[in-house]
């Protein structure tokens, strides 16, 4: 267990290249090519983290200044996903999430109950997060472990289901995102998009980055839009001219640099994706294999970045005006692109739909983050996490997502029965989708006269 914890503590930018390298060798990739792929992926993640860090370091203080200008005091601080991940893995229960996740992934793939081979094992912390909260709530180690298992099963199931939308919109062949922060918003976006499609006039409104740039010219360019949004946020924060201009250039730099870092990441993954496809075709004829990756691959899209920057001030505004909210969004403002990355494909890149949908989603999420704060604070103390001068902490990632509420609230009411019920439902859907439904599709392919029920 000590060796595993040491490996986890290396961080995603080191741990993932090692996993990619080993995975590539297993798939039959030459050593040199496998090493270069893993190294490129690691460098890509470092680049993405640097750009996200730039965004956080510039937007964070501006956001706090904006809230202070409104004269509102919010007592629960958003400590951000790095703190949430550290708290999750810092408990004895949470440290088991990675071996549980790897074993579960292998078992489900072996029995043909899923198609996603998840190499992004670092992000198993999302399941460790809910497991740690349930343990803090119930004091039951077995219920906490069961929560981790069922949460991972749900993420694997949804990763299979969303892959076609990811490939169609982002162009990532055989890649999906079993990401605990991004996938929940996809599920909410589906019914919202159905509603949007049925609103007269609104359903005809096109607002993707290409359309906006055609109408606005240079002002519609994503980098220029980033500069303008940064200038507006700087003005609302009460910055002087120098501070406003610096913030504008920094946000513009994020929109220019982040897509390039994602391209570097994809350069490293391309040989692995190709090797995985060949491996599956040879050994599992008729089966598709998806590679589970971090949704960082998606956040460089212009629609994601443009919508995210506009949602930052909206999130702060909602935090101020929503009655009963006590969370001050801060550290996770820079990770809003991860929260909405899988909403964008559902809305077909429409920025206006994304902003409306994300605003509704985050508005409700602030209440979830407020509700979960006592449990997260308790888990932080158990993990010996340094909370500084903060008496109560929370996080938008993953404190404000509906899966956290589902997995934590139900055990509070129904004990372990609720986790067992969710597990049975998820397993049943896996069997139906990957066994029964696939057999029907194959049967139609072999016999064109057959009908799907």
TrEMBL record:
GO BP field: phosphoenolpyruvate-dependent sugar phosphotransferase system
Main location: membrane
Protein keywords: Cell membrane, Membrane, Phosphotransferase system, Sugar transport, Transmembrane, Transmembrane helix, Transport
PTS EIIC type-2 domain segment(s): 4-445
Transmembrane regions: 6-27, 39-59, 79-109, 143-162, 218-239, 289-322, 328-347, 359-380, 414-433
GO molecular function: galactitol transmembrane transporter activity
PROSITE patterns: PTS_EIIC_TYPE_2
Domain of life: Bacteria
Subcellular localization, as worded in the UniProt entry: Cell membrane
Topological relation to the membrane, as annotated: Multi-pass membrane protein
Record GO cellular component, one term: plasma membrane
Name of the molecule in the record: PTS galactitol transporter subunit IIC
